[in-house]
Every structure is written in structure tokens, then in C-alpha cells.
Design a protein that fits this description.
The chain is an alpha/beta fold. The chain is 42% helix and 14% strand. The chain has 21 helices and 20 strands. The strands form five sheets. Strands 12-20-19-18-17-16-13 form a seven-stranded parallel β-sheet. Strands 4-3-5-7-6-11 form a six-stranded mixed β-sheet. A three-stranded antiparallel β-sheet has the order 2-1-10. The chain is globular and about 80 Å long. The chain starts with a helix and ends with a helix. Bound molecules: zinc ion (2 copies). One zinc ion binds next to α11.
């Protein structure tokens, strides 16, 4: 499969890696220095600038000023005062948000075009303008400036890298940045455990506990997904079996869908949605989505619609549109969300989602080793057909995507080659939101979590970002002297899926061919060397955590037996526990798994 090989990430193993990030940073800052600087914000630890916030600033704009002050001080040694725009105008100012001092200038910012997350970065005379839409634009602008213009990096909640500069200068700037994805959701614990870190990466989903100082979240769902049992409860269906799906000649109960052509099912659902909106006034998306099973209704009426539309998405979307139509007038800012998932993934022939209906398309069946757009696996070809069809008709197409092995959170999941192509592919087909599901369990810590979460956040913010650069920077900063070996290891686990075109899926077993004994043994040898190269305890521990996957495969596929197995299992559990890992898979805790195996 040549095409995927060419699209692969270069996990380069060279001796110069450890200094690569530093070298890149020096170069880029040198670039700033040699371009004719328009403004010098600080020089030798001194500054003539202050930060001006609007008198009516919202919490996230005030926090934007504090973050800018904090990081400019780390970078330059100079602490800029924060003042209100009721103070008199000075020539050396950093103007944040929709600011009275900005209004006095000739330069204009069209806030209506920036949305809730976009911003303008502009140098006007000796002033720097960071002006964004509410509620998150200005804060996003501050982080983009710090990261892209001054070289600050937030690798993990605990590890940041901030350059120290004698002179903080900027060339003439005039950039308007509005992220192409309105909702950016990396569903990995790494971001959920620290809201400040999530905000710095400009992810804006609902699971990060983002507060008003961060500008809150873009999406606030109620309920989050699979809501049929909540809409038309099973107890009610006991009295009214006609609400249940008709399957093989009878109404089926248990964990099933509902009869969507039944007028009472619609009436009750609309009432329930109105009630949910009342009870959850902060929710801007109400989920009217199928349960996490098949069991859809095949009564005469439901079936007639599905047959005519060529997909069970027909009766579903007809129903969801009716709910959305009923509430739209009273609640114009609330969207109704449904899934295009498993049996409803294929778009209907003629029924179109209303303008207030979100369709969340799920890639659960796909191969993730190779780009969705080019992988030859049949499941990917089918997904391509579905996204093309939905993309053409859905005004609000969201995607629920998958980035780990859910049956084995610690198992190598060699998907780095495809991440960027897939994000680009989604965007090309009109997707407005990406939900990248990973290990979201309480303790997090899945295979390569810190790197994977970091790269995903970078991609969701900017699908055209330089992934290669981010991987190199991250690995060098996080793994220190062991970095070249970590890159070599990543290369070694990606090679089988590149060279032998092996496909990977989210419930693959530890005995899968791409995790062969040879591959895992080679990986372990490299990580052995990595551990020896680690320069301190922090780095050594990070390498040990990166090693858990090769041990996991060894243990879980029974390639090690007897005392050696017990010994390895104990070491595994000790390191995983120290790393805070709570779950070994979506359904099983580390404790439960470890105990069961030790007893065996
Ligand atoms: Zn029916
Ligand atoms: Zn594939």
C-alpha cells in the first residue's frame, strides 16, 4: 500500500533530536528578530506597555489579560500592568477584546465575523490588538500569540516550555483566525483533568469543566447521547407496548429502540424535550438519539419510510425533524442532536435534516491505521460513501471519531499516520465538530495518551498544522534524552500497518497480527534502551509508562507464562497504578483485571 506509506509520519531517529525543539525555537525567534520588528513589547526585563481590558470585560477577557501578563513576565521578566479602557489612551498598549481604545483607532474589527472562538491579531502603529468574539475569542487570541509568535508550549498540564527572551518583539501582524471546527472535543482524560490546560489548547467541548473564566464550553448537551429510554421510558412502554419496536412479528422490550411512526411516541418525546430544556436551561443541544443497540422498529409504517428512503435513518430523521420543528419557535438557540450510527449511518434518499438538527456521524466500524479517504478496507469505503452523502445535505454535521482500542486501552494503536488526513477529510465534507473519543476513564493514561491528546488538540484547532513538528517537539520535551528511542519505537509499531497494509479497529485483540511477537519484542528492546537513556526520574517514569503497552500485549496474549508472567504483571500494575490508571478497558478496571490474572 504505497500511498499510505508515503503519507506516514516520520518518526526520525537521529542523535540531534534532543536539541531539535530548541533549535526550531531559536530559528523561529531569530526569524522574528530579523524581520523588521514593528513593536518591542519588552527589552532587558523592562516594558513600556500595559494591557488594556474593556471596562465591561467578561470573565474570560479578564482572564485573558492575566494569562498574557503571566506568560509575558515568564518570557521577558517584565510585568505588564493591566488597566481598564476608562484610563486614557497611550501609544504603547496591548488592547484586548472590544475595547474603547480600539474604537478610537482607525483600524476596524468586525466582531460579527469572528464567532464565539475567532479573533484578530493585529499590530497597529505601536499597539498590539488581540480582539476576539465572545465568549472565547480573545482568550484564544492570547494563547495563539503566546504559542505561535513567542514559542510557549503546554505539553501536559504539568509540563510547559516557555522561552526566555531578552527582547520580545513582533513584526507587523494582521491575522484573522476563525477555527474551521466550531466544536473541538478531545475526549481523553488528559484534557478533562485540567480545565486551564484544555483552554490553552482551545478545545471547547463540554467535558472539560470549562468555567466562565475560560469562556465556558461551546456544546452543552442534555442528555449526552443514546436518549430513547429517557424520552419514552421503558415503564411507560409496559403499559403501551405499541411504543416499542415491532421485530419478527412482535413488540420487543428490553434495551431497544422505539416505534418512531407512533404519534404518541412523538408527542411524549416533544413534551420530554420541552421539560429537559426547562430543567437544563444551560443546555444548547438536546439529544434525541437512538439507544446503543440495533433493535429498530420494522412495523408496517416505519418500514415503509425506511424502504422508501433506503435506510433506517429515514424513519429516525423524520421523527427527529418533527421534534426539532416543534420546539424551534420557542427555543431558537437549542439544537436537536441525533446519531448516524451503525444501522442509521447511511443517509436517507430524500429526507433532509432541519436547520436545527445536528447529525452525529460515527466512524466506529472503520480502520484507523490508514487515512479514511484512501484505506482499501470495505468498511472505510462504506464510511466514505456515507460521509459524502451526509455532507451534501446536513447543515450541522458532527463526527464522533475513535482514537484508541476500547477493549484494551494499553494496547498499541498505531493510528498516527492517519490522524491529520482524517481531520482534513472530515472538514472537506463540511464537518463542524469533531469528538475524538479516547480513554476518558477516571484515571486516563491510555497508550501514548499525552502525545496523542496533544496532537489531536493541535489538529482540531488547525487541520493544516504541522503534525510532524508537534510530534518532534513533544517527544523531545517530554522524553528528554530518551526521545530518539521513543520515536524509533513509534516507528517500529507503525511499520507493520504500513508495510503489510494491516488494518486496525477499535476492538482489536492483543493477538492481532500487527502486534506480533517480533514486533513487540523489537519494541521492548528499543524501550529498554530508552529507559537507560533517561536523564532523571521524571523522564524514566514517562518511559516506563510508554512501555506498559508492550508488556500488556505480552501478558494479555499469554506470551509469557508461570512466574515470569506473575512478575511482569506485578510490575505492570505497580507502574500503571502509580500513573493513576483506573481502567484497563472501557468496561474493566485495572484492579479487577490485575487480580483476576494474578489468581490464575
Ligand atoms: Zn414502528
Ligand atoms: Zn486500513
Amino acid at each position: 500500500m504505497k500511498n499510505t506509506q508515503n503519507a506516514g509520519i516520520q518518526f526520525t531517529d537521529t542523535n540531534t533530536q534532543s536539541s531539535r525543539w530548541a533549535a526550531w525555537l531559536a530559528l523561529s525567534l531569530l526569524g522574528l528578530g530579523t524581520t523588521k520588528a514593528a513593536v518591542t513589547i519588552a527589552d532587558q526585563g523592562r516594558t513600556k506597555y500595559h494591557i488594556v481590558v474593556p471596562v465591561g470585560a467578561i470573565p474570560s477577557e479578564r482572564y485573558a489579560a492575566e494569562e498574557l501578563q503571566r506568560y509575558l513576565e515568564k518570557i521577558s521578566g517584565a510585568k505588564l500592568a493591566i488597566v481598564s479602557d476608562t484610563e486614557k489612551t497611550e501609544s504603547r498598549e496591548i488592547l484586548l477584546g472590544d475595547n474603547a481604545h480600539l474604537a478610537k483607532l482607525r483600524t476596524e474589527v468586525d466582531f460579527t465575523k469572528l464567532g464565539p472562538d475567532g479573533f484578530v491579531l493585529r499590530v497597529d502603529g505601536s499597539r498590539l490588538i488581540i480582539a476576539g468574539g465572545r465568549p472565547r475569542g480573545t482568550l484564544n487570541g492570547v494563547y495563539t500569540l503566546l504559542e505561535e509568535k513567542f514559542g510557549a508550549r503546554w505539553f501536559t498540564p504539568e509540563l510547559e516550555a516557555v522561552p526566555k527572551l531578552e527582547r520580545v518583539r513582533l513584526p507587523k501582524l494582521n491575522e484573522t483566525i476563525v477555527p474551521v471546527l466550531e466544536n473541538r472535543d478531545v475526549f481523553w482524560r488528559q484534557f478533562m483533568r485540567n480545565a486551564d490546560f484544555a483552554a490553552r489548547h482551545r478545545v471547547n467541548g463540554q467535558h472539560y469543566s470549562l468555567t466562565p473564566k475560560h469562556g465556558g464550553a461551546f456544546t452543552v448537551y442534555h442528555p449526552f447521547v443514546h436518549s430513547f429510554d429517557g424520552l419514552v421510558p421503558p415503564e411507560l412502554c409496559k403499559e403501551h407496548p405499541e411504543y416499542l419496536p415491532f421485530i419478527n412479528g412482535q413488540r420487543k422490550s428490553g434495551y431497544v429502540q422505539r416505534c418512531l411512526s407512533n404519534p404518541d411516541v412523538l408527542r411524549i418525546s416533544i413534551e420530554r424535550v420541552r421539560q429537559w430544556i426547562k430543567e437544563h436551561p444551560q443546555a444548547n443541544i438536546i439529544s434525541v438519539s437512538q439507544n446503543d443497540t440495533f433493535n429498530n422498529c420494522q412495523c408496517e409504517q416505519c418500514k415503509a419510510t425506511d424502504d422508501a428512503e433506503g435506510s433506517p435513518a429515514g424513519s429516525l430523521l423524520k421523527f427527529v425533524n418533527a421534534v426539532a420543528g416543534a420546539i424551534e419557535k420557542d427555543h431558537p438557540n437549542v439544537r436537536i442532536d441525533t446519531l448516524a450510527y451503525q444501522y442509521t449511518r447511511k443517509a436517507p434518499k430524500t429526507i433532509r435534516p432541519r436547520r436545527n438538527v445536528i447529525v452525529r456521524l460515527c466512524s466506529i466500524e472503520c480502520c484507523f491505521a490508514h487515512p479514511l479517504e484512501t484505506c482499501a478496507a470495505k468498511e472505510n469505503q462504506r464510511f466514505r460513501d456515507d460521509i459524502v452523502a451526509w455532507g451534501a445535505v446536513a447543515p450541522l454535521l458532527y463526527v464522533w471519531d475513535y482514537t484508541t482500542d476500547f477493549g484494551h486501552y494499553q494496547q498499541p494503536f498505531p493510528n498516527f499516520d492517519a490522524l491529520q488526513s482524517n481531520v482534513r477529510f472530515f472538514v472537506k465534507h463540511g464537518v463542524k465538530s469533531l469528538f475524538e473519543q479516547g480513554n476518558y476513564s477516571g484515571g486516563g493514561g491510555g497508550e501514548m495518551e499525552p502525545l496523542r491528546a496533544y496532537v489531536l488538540a493541535k489538529l482540531l484547532w488547525n487541520p493544516e498544522t504541522d503534525v510532524q513538528k508537534h510530534i518532534n517537539e513533544f517527544v523531545n520535551a517530554y522524553y528528554g534524552k530518551a526521545a530518539p528511542k521513543i520515536l524509533a519505537y513509534l516507528d517500529s509499531i507503525h511499520r507493520p500497518v504500513r508495510e503489510q497494509a494491516k488494518h486496525i479497529h477499535i476492538f482489536d485483540k492483543p493477538a492481532s497480527a500487527y502486534l506480533s511477537e517480533d514486533v513487540m519484542n523489537a519494541g521492548e528492546r528499543i524501550l529498554d534502551e530508552a529507559e537507560q537513556m533517561a536523564e532523571n526520574d521524571d523522564v524514566r517514569f514517562r518511559v516506563q509508562v510508554a512501555r506498559l503497552p508492550v508488556w500488556y500485549v505480552k501478558i494479555a496474549s499469554n506470551r509469557v507464562t508461570g512466574d515470569a508472567r506473575t512478575e511482569l504483571l506485578k510490575r505492570f500494575v505497580a507502574i500503571a497504578s502509580k500513573a493513576g490508571v483506573s481502567n484497563i478497558s472501557e468496561g474493566k478496571s485495572l484492579d479487577e483485571w490485575g487480580k483476576k490474572l494474578i489468581v490464575q
